[in-house]
Every structure is written in C-alpha cells, then in structure tokens.
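Reopening this ticket.

The earlier resolution said the output was attached, but the attachment link was broken on my side. Pasting everything inline this time so it's all in one place.
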Amino acid sequence: MRNYTESIFRRTSAIFAAMVLAAAGLVGKLSWIVASDDFAQTAKTQSKYTLTVAEQRGLIYDCKMQPLVGTIERWQTAVFPTPQNQKKVLDAVEPERKEAVAELLETGKPFVTETTEAVEAEMVYSFSVPERYAENQTAVHLIGYLDYTGSGVTGIEKEYDSFLAGSGQTIQVTAMLNALQQTIAGVEPEIRMEGRENAGVVLTLDGRIQQIIESIGSQMLDKGAIVVMDPYNGQIRAMASFPAYSPLHLGEAVNDQENKPMLNRALLGYSVGSTFKIVTAAAAMQALGREYCLTRKYTCAGAVDVYGQVFRCHLRSGHGELDMFDAMRESCNPWFIGIGQETGGEALLKTAENMGFGETMMLYGNITASGGTLPSADSLQAPAAVANFSFGQGELTASPVQIARMTAAVVNGGKLVSPSLVLGTTDDGKELHASALPVSRQAISSEIAAQLKVMLSYAVMSDDSSGAKPELVSAGGKTATAQTGQYDGDGNELEQGWFTGFFPADEPQYVMTVLAENEGFGNTSAAPVFAQIADAVAGMLQMAADEEPAAESND
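Inline output:
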C-alpha cells in the first residue's frame, strides 16, 4: 500500500512540475512579445487619432448682435487618406497648395487642410468655419488683432482675451487607426463640437453706421478720424481712423512710417481751434448772463489788438457788426476774443474742465481717449493767453472723442456723458449680459445747452456755403481750422480741419466729430464729410423704417 501511495505522489509531482514549466514558458513568451518593438509600436498606433479641425475664438458683436468678426466662412476639411478619396480632396484644393496636399496624402497619415468647397468622400469631413478677419476688416482699430499664438495684442481682442479665448467652439474628429496608422475599415470617426458657438463680446458700435463712416471717410480723408456718439448715454456708435490697416498684412502697416495706419487718431489729442468757441460761448453766458451775450454787438474789422498783440480774423476784411448768433456762424475770432476777455481766463478754464477737457476717458479697460491739454491758470493771467484760449488756440488740445463728448452736452441738456465702447457679453448671440451703465454729470445748465443747440443749428442751416449742411436731414454744428505751429517742407503751417455737430437738428439722435489731419479749412475738409455721412445715416434709417412690417389693424 505504501509503494502504491508513493507511486501516485511521484506521478502527481511530475505532472505538476510539467505544468509549472509550461506556464513559465508561456509567461516568458508573452513577456517577449509584449516587450518586442513591433508589439509596442502596434499597441501605440492601434488607437484613437484626433484631428483638431478648428479652435474658434469668441465673437465680437455690434449693438444689434451682428458679428463684426468671423463674417467670412471657409472650409476646413479633416482627411483620413484612402485610395478612394485622394482625387476628390485634391480637386477641392487651391492650385498653389495641390503639391503640398498630395505629399500629405501619400504619407497616409490624417491631416487637416483648407478646401474651396465641402468634400464628399469616404473618410473626409468638411466644416464651414469663420475666418477671424476680413481683408478690409471693419472697426480694425477698436477690435485689434491677434499674435501668432492666437492671443489678443491690441483693442478688444486684448482687453477680452481670456473671455474670447475660452468662449469659442472647438471641432475635433477622432478615428481609430491600425498599426500602420491607417484608418480601420468600417469604423466611423467620432465628431465632437464643444464650447459655445455664438458667445462673445457686445460693443456699442452700430455696424451699419460703422461701414458708412469707413466708406465715406476712406474716400474723403487721407488722414484723420470720425466719431459718432449717442449724445444721451455716451455710447460710441461708430469710430474710424484713417488710413486703416489690414490685420492680415500687419507687416505692411508697421513699415508704413509716413502714414502710420496703426494709430487710432480718434483717441489722440490735436489742436482744436474754433470748435472750442462752443465752450467760450457757454462760459460767457454763465458768467455774464445769456441776455447780455445774445444781444452783445461787436464790429469786426478783421483784427483786434489785445494789449499790443494783434489777433487776426480769418476774414481779413472783417465781418462788420455781429451778434452772438452771427459770430458763431461766421466763426469770427475778434468777437470771441472780446467776449473771452470779458469772461476771464478763470471762468473759461473752469467751463472747459466741466466739459471734460484735460480728462482721460476710459472707453474700456486700457482703451482710453485723450482729453487733451489745457493752459494753466497761471498762464491765463496774461490777456494774450486768454485771447488765444477764447478761440481754441494756444496750449489747448483734445481728441475727436472729447470734442464729440463736448457736443453731446449741447444736445442732451448740459450733461457730460462718459464715452463707452462695450455693452456687455453674450453666451448665445441673442441675450445680453449688460455691463454697468456709464455715469454722467452736469457740465453746463440746461438753459445754456438749449441756447447753444439753437445757435449751432442756425450756424449750419442758415449757411449754404458752410459745407456742413446735409440734403436729407437738418443739422447743427461748428467748423474749425486749428493752427499747430508745425510746418511742412515748403514752410506752410500744418492746420487741422474740424467739424463737430449733431443731427437731426430738432431732436438729435447722433453727434459726430470729423478730424481732417493737416488738411486745414474745416469747412472744405471736414464739414463735407459730416454732411455726406449725416445724409447716408438718415437714408439708412429711413430705409430701415420703410422695411419694418406695418402694425396689424384691429379693424
């Protein structure tokens, strides 16, 4: 019995040992297979392969939720090469890119390319995605541009960089590839669209008015700026600087040192000239009384002597006898020098400060407009300095935005609005998440503002030769030709041409300021620009009103 038991034990041990050896051999074989380069490569490549077709950035809208960027669509196509789809892909590629795309197809590896149209082929997926900027990008100085990493460098692109970068939609296509990095037959790729397609920043701009001022301004201004503002809340409806530049050709703009197209001239300070007579008139009526100022008569002989310093009128022969209304219309320097002397430098300076001169304006974030410079109180102890100040010369500058702000106070009952550029944000391109409303303060009395409004309306509507009178709408405003003390190569002094005004005259909807840089004579360089834009905007508004559906009758 003992011998039998030992025999069974020996046989069982032998079988167990054999099994252990076999298992060890199998484990070793598996370890070798797993450790081999071929298997490692197969494990690595036989996996998901993701193509990112587009990483879109949040949009930038106008006040009516119309996109200002991404208005041009292009086709981005994800290609997983197969012998059957190569020809169709090549047929949809621009001629200058065919050779490069053919090389990509030959590798057999997936890739993304731009095509002229949607490609309908096996394992090819086309998507219509927005191009960020157009060749002639609207509102380029305000919107700004991106660097090579897709980050904002200037303008709204910079100020809202984090929000815009995180607000767009990402499109990805994921496919299964075999060990040779080839698409596995019968396995459809997965398409993912993540993010918020229509999220973005909403500006105060009205895209329709923006296009009007850019079109007319580019035809009539070599250098300069145009600002259109809502006079009641300070929201900027349009702003353009000339010449403009293309964000698609930044190198050209940077190298153009003569024209400096990347400057936003609407935000910079310039000599303002006779537009400042609006402030002088307001200060005089405040200090001396409205009745006195309105009935004051003065005979302009073409020049006036202020303690031995002669100041000339632009009309060397003189305007003859004028009251305040005619002095504003004719822009008579001696008349305003005289009333300025009576008013005094201190009162002039105080009114200018009340109307925002010298005060930097925060349009949004680091986007600021210059309030310009003012003479010091000490300098205005000299009668000649007060004379210069009275008609907008001397140590006085302001930006087009500030001049528009001053004009808004005339229209809105004397309130100094805070110019603004951003309404808020949106998640869907429909609902606005509004930013805080800008504040305003009383700059001049409502009675003086109303008197100035009538006076400026008279200045435009009673003078067919001013160049500022529109054909389709009434208007009010003031011209200026500002001396700069700078001269060109021929020894001619450079002068800034200005016009600032509002329309319609009776119930103004907009104020507009036009600067013609170094063009002189505001009545010929800037005023006609105002007139054409006022007519174009009035026509646009009338057309929009005509297109609105009539209210349903209850009859």
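Reporter confirms the inline version is readable. Residues 1-5, 26-45 have pLDDT under 50 and may be disordered. The chain has two domains: 48-83+113-203, 207-546.
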